[in-house]
């Protein structure tokens, strides 16, 4: 056994004195809760030791020092009394020394001394051995009064949830460290595998600490490495160097922007929020970093310098470089983060080809952006991520480079010719079409081109261009070049269908390569139908659930008990694994049905290995305006407004059978 003790808790005894007689103190409650949670994570009883008998005026004896070489992790619970106690600070020094003499103080870049900040204390007063380690803050600061409130197990509402969330964070982090020590057995180095993506989660103002912690927690649980994993320096030159180093390691940077900019490092006129955004924007121009920026709805506040930064962020191309800006709910932003990471993973693994979505004329920009979001939701990496240069030579070089990264290009031609770059007479629309045609001839690209039904008759350049495309369309025999003349209403669904077909062909080809000469399996046992409903409709879906089961399907329905993270994770796992999705639209309101149908458009981004070819919506009472003309592309609508009958489900079941899922 490498260590006899998993965790040693170092604390000031006054911090364990209960406020009410007969109750347990804060430290005792923390100790017990941590022991239970860590034991659950380890799969065996966690061995946690703390001194429960010595008093604050006792001598620092051998009993404690003797624990340190046998102890894997120390938790220092910082408070004003802890920092004033020679005894407590000596515990940190002694453990640090013993750890350095043994297996090492750091395992990779993770310290074996965990810092729990029970009460707000100045960072420059922290023991020097742990001054640069990130702490777990068990307090919140009121944004209006600046008063600090400690978190404990008896807090009410959101504060109680914050306490348990932070306790779960430290338990998970300790568990990872203990398992790493156990696996290595000696001085350990955590080697982050090439498959583990690193995410830069920018430090934000104190008002957004809760949101930052929540995002960090979900990313770590999803298997991502999150940096910075140490406290950032307070001097701007060092601050920039450390941030740039972390950005070099990252595939995505995430920035939460609230009503203030946070700390201003020494030697800087800008806050840490603005500095991190500037450095990430610069890095993104290399093409190796994606960025997501969330603006707190209602921001900015009273800080004029920060207000100017927010204004630049909204209007300045340099500040926005490489970034998608969100002014949404934090939940929608979290979904966008996970979608972006799935897209990045897919692009790296080659699971879904990157898509070149050509820039178009001004009137079609809104439509192009909508299509871009749908593609991202399907798990595609969409290029270009930044505006293309408007000098001909640079434009061609950039487009060629981006097309080389893509397996598919999409071109939406409108009625107008588009912007013409400097030193050429061809528009950006024409040039992108021309460069993609070159790669089609080389056999390295599939292309989808939409021709408009009408065009600007007064623009001779556009007439010539469209005539060229139509001629090529008539002569075209290349199956990789798909040109259609259609309305915008039909364009979206046609593109998405074609992309799904391309991905399905790729999947089948890979299967044939793995098992040449074998026929594709005709079935895989009972199909799995995800029957999605609102909590209020659980009792109304019984007949529908029974019919599906009796028809040979396995049926899963949503769970409604558990915390929000668990419910979302289960919902996405069901979307990932099901053969068909059927939405029961009864008591759920319009926001609910919009949320669920959005999830169906994002389904490929949740890690599915093959398309979901059957989606249905069962319309059920009560009647309402949203249901009267309910329509959804690629979705079977079942009208059950007059009540349920087995016959209504026949088209759905026949479709399921025809797909070979039953």
> How can the largest sheet be summarized?
5 strands, parallel
Mean pLDDT: 83
Radius of gyration computed on alpha carbons: 29 Å
Uncertain stretches = 186-193, 516-523
* Share of residues in helices: 40-55%
How many distinct helices?
21
Trace the largest sheet across and list its strands. 2-1-3-6-7
Distance between the termini: 52 Å
Protein structure class: alpha/beta
Choose one word for the global shape. globular
Say how many strands there are.
24
- Which range does the strand content fall in? 15-25%
Describe this structure in words.
By secondary structure, the protein is an alpha/beta fold. It is built from 21 helices and 24 strands. The strands form six sheets. Strands 2-1-3-6-7 form a five-stranded parallel beta sheet, sandwiched between helices. α12 (365-377) links the parallel β15 (354-357) and β16 (382-383). The longest helix is centred in the first third of the chain and has 28 residues, at 157-184. The model is unreliable at 186-193 and 516-523 (pLDDT under 50).
Sequence-ordered SSE layout with sheet pairings:
Layout: E1 5-10, H1 26-42, E2 48-49, H2 62-65, E3 71-78, H3 80-84, H4 86-101, E4 106-107, E5 110-111, E6 113-117, E7 135-137, E8 139-141, E9 148-150, H5 157-184, E10 198-201, H6 209-221, E11 225-227, H7 236-249, E12 252-257, H8 272-284, E13 290-295, H9 304-315, H10 317-320, E14 323-326, H11 330-349, E15 354-357, H12 365-377, E16 382-383, H13 392-404, E17 406-412, H14 428-441, E18 446-451, H15 460-475, E19 481-485, H16 488-514, E20 528-532, H17 542-550, E21 554-556, H18 564-577, E22 580-585, H19 590-601, E23 615-619, H20 625-628, E24 636-639, H21 650-658
Parallel strand pairs: 1-2, 1-3, 3-6, 6-7, 10-11, 10-12, 12-13, 13-14, 15-16, 15-17, 17-18, 18-19, 20-21, 20-22, 22-23, 23-24
Antiparallel strand pairs: 4-5, 8-9
Helix pairs in contact: 1-5, 5-6, 7-8, 13-14
